Amino acid sequence: MKFNNINVYVSSKAVIGKNVKIGDNTIIYDNVEIGDNSIIANNCVLGEPLNSYYSDESYVNPKTVFGRNTLIRSHAIIYAGSQFGDFFMTGHTVLIREKTIMGTHCSVGSFADVEGYSTFGNYCRMHSYSNIGMESKLGNFVFVYPYVNFTNDPHPPSNVCVGPTIGDYSQIAAHSVLLPGVQIGKNCLIGVNTTVINNVPDDSVVSGNPGKIIGRTRWIKSKEKENTSHYPWMYHFDKGMPWKGIGYEQWLKENPDF
Fold first, then answer.
1. Which residues have C-beta within 8 Å of that of residue 36, sequence separation ≥ 6?
2. What pLDDT digit, counting tens, does each position of 122-170 carry?
3. Which of 26, 43, 47, 186 meets the CB 3.0–4.6 Å disulfide criterion with 64?
4. How many angstroms separate the CA atoms of 159 and 191, rounded?
């Protein structure tokens, strides 16, 4: 464990793995676990106590777990009670609230806001300035682009909280708004500035306000390979993906239960 410079506080109840680097002015609270070979940059707060910390004298900070090879960039605040798989990565000034669960190889871009009590599969990407409301559920390989807003209160203000559900491989383009409780299937594309008000079946393209199904993803032609469909995108894009170098089909054969 390496404390780079100044004003680093690590609780005696935290568990820090091997070869972990921690930057200036970072605070790591009770019951935080950080896996081997991780980097925590300057001015971060990990295991931020929950609200009851300020009123309950018997408060115990819930466990917060970061897998191996985590990279958390400066000014991130991550609340207690969350779990992140190996190779988790953030941009700068990220806020992630309690009870967030992410699989392996997930990333959260700069200034993104994840409001907690949400689940994410593996290889999910939340791009900068995205807002994920509480009780959202994302499958594997879901990409959420800048300024997307997942809402969760059907009649604000109310005591009902139900976030959107997104199927594997779906793409949510910039400035889209997903209404509470909508269910988006697998391999879908939600277009820029779309407001999704109804459930979306697999392999659909949705656009407009209100959003309407305008076609199937397989109809969209590639801008890289003439006369070829770009979707399913997994056959044409492998940057940062586990099938890089072997192809999606071969990867599926080797990982049938993924």
1. 17, 18, 19, 20, 68, 69
2. 999 999 999 999 999 999 999 999 999 999 999 999 999 999 999 999 9
3. 47
4. 30
Cα 130 from Cα 147, distance rounded (Å): 5
Please provide residue 228's backbone torsions phi and psi, each rounded to the nearest 5 degrees. Answer: -125, 140
In order of their start, the domains of the chain are 2-231 (2.160.10.10), 232-258 (no CATH)
Give residue-wise pLDDT tens across range 60-102. 999 999 999 999 999 999 999 999 999 999 999 999 999 999 9
In the prediction, which pLDDT does 5 show?
66
The amino acid at residue 200 is V
Strand 137-138 versus strand 183-184 pairing type = unpaired
The SS3 call for residue 89 is: strand
CA distance 111 to 134: 17
Q: Sort 190 into a burial class: Cβ within 10 Å, 0-12 / 13-18 / 19+.
A: buried
pLDDT tops 80 at residue 2: no
